[in-house]
From TrEMBL:
<dbReference type="InterPro" id="IPR000811">
    <property type="entry name" value="Glyco_trans_35"/>
</dbReference>
<dbReference type="InterPro" id="IPR052182">
    <property type="entry name" value="Glycogen/Maltodextrin_Phosph"/>
</dbReference>
<dbReference type="Pfam" id="PF00343">
    <property type="entry name" value="Phosphorylase"/>
</dbReference>
<dbReference type="InterPro" id="IPR035090">
    <property type="entry name" value="Pyridoxal_P_attach_site"/>
</dbReference>
<dbReference type="InterPro" id="IPR011834">
    <property type="entry name" value="Agluc_phsphrylas"/>
</dbReference>
<protein>
    <recommendedName>
        <fullName>glycogen phosphorylase</fullName>
        <ecNumber>2.4.1.1</ecNumber>
    </recommendedName>
</protein>
<keyword id="KW-0663">Pyridoxal phosphate</keyword>
<keyword id="KW-0119">Carbohydrate metabolism</keyword>
<comment type="function">
    <text>Phosphorylase is an important allosteric enzyme in carbohydrate metabolism. Enzymes from different sources differ in their regulatory mechanisms and in their natural substrates. However, all known phosphorylases share catalytic and structural properties.</text>
</comment>
<keyword id="KW-0808">Transferase</keyword>
<comment type="similarity">
    <text>Belongs to the glycogen phosphorylase family.</text>
</comment>
<keyword id="KW-0328">Glycosyltransferase</keyword>
Amino acid sequence: MSDWKSFTHEPKIAYFSMEIGLSTDIPTYSGGLGILAGDTIKSAADLKLPMVAVTLASRKGYFRQKLATDGWQQEFFVEWKPESRMELLPAKTLVSIENRDVKIQAWLYRVKSPTGGEVPVLFLDTDIPGNMEEDRRITDQLYGGDLEYRLKQEIVLGIGGARLLSVLGFTIKKFHLNEGHASLLTLELLAKARLPVEDTWDERASWETRRVMEQCVFTTHTPVEAGHDRFPYPLVKRVLGEPVPFPLLQELAGQKELNMTVLAMNLSRFVNGVAKKHGEISKSLFPGFEIHAITNGIHPFTWASPYFVALYDQYLPSWANEPELLVRVDNIPDEEIWEAHSGAKAYLFQYIEETTGVKLDPEILTIGFARRSATYKRGDLIFSDPDRLARIGEGKLQLVFGGKAHPSDVPGKQVIQQIFKHMDQLRGKVKAVYLENYNMDVAYRLIPGVDLWLNNPIRPLEASGTSGMKAALNGVPNFSILDGWWIEGHIEGVTGWSIGPPPTESSLTANDSKEDVNDLYSKLEQVILPLYYDDRPGWIRTMKNAIGKNAYYFNTHAMLRRYVTEAYIR
Ligand SMILES: *Cc1c(COP(=O)(O)O)cnc(C)c1O
């Protein structure tokens, strides 16, 4: 084991993220944002990029989901102990919160690649003797608590994270802010960027601001104004104090309240959205900013089921570190693609039987839908007309669901209840199950094991979406609203199918649910079911196209190469 100090020998890109999903047993993630962060770090290790990641220890995790018989969600802590699997780094740092010093320590986790690359991940932790009880809880619960709790977490992440890197001896070339949660780090950089000569206030501020901008890269993930973290200034004054003069803070972060996205945009030279469409949406949300687009990806080796790993290893050796090779998927015989898929399906069905008691039929077309249960994702859309669904799908369709709602998102929880209600109504006609506690482990079985991956968000709210990329990698075609990454990955009838109208500018926010629902049902009935049951070679061709035309490109290796050439080395 190399000494941790070796990590500080060369300058690094520091990747800051409130959540990072590396594996199920490090439960410090809630959904797509965290998984993306974890996948990014894994690709960085594969590619031997000089990176270090900074996140929170979240000792009580996000939560474990249980569902009552009526589908109502209950939440339980997932206590985990960083000390059981990480090394405590010897340096500590302090941040000022409500005018008192709060000590921060960091746990080191090493993400190691078979290529020999290694990326350190620092999990920040305030659970230290000497801190007030209240402060020891700051790094407990991911996205828990109120606005004040959130602000304290973001002080620890942004300011604490930057200070800790510095006391540990890291030299940082670029700070990459994965979403606005870490934006306060720009204030720390600003406070340190002192113009060497005395000058007028204005001159100094603009010189210092430019210097910080050179160091920062910001990725925004949310296409709605309400999704960005904002804090009222009285709260900021009381909890954070005044790390930079107040008029300057207001100029950089918003006059009325501290908007973390605006702060990051104003202090980052490179700003990007997570798909082409999302880049455009972000430009309209923040006029005047130059906003690029680098489409998200997934880590190939992590998300390929063991069945496809074996197949790719045999026919496309070194695919895992060179996923472009998946473009040559036609070298794999059809029967072997089908066999691998059948293996993944059986593996999922066994899990479903063990956890729910429901026995699904491997011969029946099975649709999967699992992601955070936020209302815009419309998890219950397929039940809009239960009679029609029963008519189309009786004996020909099975449904598998999964997903957690944020603990305070009551409408999101009600969507799960609705799904339960409809599953009940369709009993005897269309078999359906809802898998509890959707996490990386469940995703790893669920996504490769279904035949078709459904995604029906309200446009344009799915900034990118990544679960569909995991499906494609396992030969599972997407059936999705034209939003996020699917606008770029979709070729109708070739890589999968669209739902609803094209994503034209004029219908940017128009959402005709009726049109979406109608298209969903009619395409299912007239195109997808006949192809699956009557033209198996045609179906397998679609599976191969999902691999060769989607998965070869929508991965974090390709994504990171773009970050390097377009953002990091500039
Ligand atoms: C990939 C993944 C997500 C993201 O799913 P989207 O459909 O992109 O929202 C969320 N949760 C888990 C556990 C995942 O593995």
